[in-house]
Design brief:
Strand content: 5-15%
Helix content: 40-55%
Strand order of the largest sheet: 3-2-1-4-5-6
Order of helices and strands: EHEHEHEHEHEHHH
Radius of gyration: 17 Å
Number of strands: 6
Amino acid sequence: SGVDLLKFYPSNNKKTDKIKILFIGRIIADKGIYELIEAAEIIKKEYSNVTFILMGMLGVKNRTSISKSEVDNWVNNGVIEFIPFKEDIRSFLSDSHLVVLPSYREGTPKTLIEAASMAKPLIATDVPGCREVVIHEVNGFLCEVKNSGSLAEAIKRFIKLDYSDKIQMGLKSRELAERKFDIKKVNNSYINELNIIKNGKR
């Protein structure tokens, strides 16, 4: 997986007392939605300046799909805000301060790579795929899978960071994206491998 570094570029790092935490993905249990909701409930009891935003697709065909009525209930109770998935997510990433993905399993998460490219601090579960993009205590925090308490603690650690440390985490995300996920480098790697196979050297 790669990212267009020119399209997903750092922006909107202004200092503010408010914190927007963004999830982007399918609204299914396997993405850690229930753990995120429980963590949000914990956080919002202690911090009134934090907003949790779920952006994603409802009604997907998946055994762990979460219903619209359940999401509506979370919205009505003030736990989260919900935004249907958009093709262009850059403005939403730009407006966020932290991107989270408490998924049970992943390949290489596209949304985390795009968020990293836009210099966003990240929190994700300590599973293959996620830990390729989130370097613990460098550009974000890793938490335990299926553990809302661990996720809440990771979010609290982020909230308590100084503004300069949050910015530094975001810059480390961008550095990682440039070094590891630049779409030009990724495409060249694929082309080189195909040429090796084509020339019978493997």
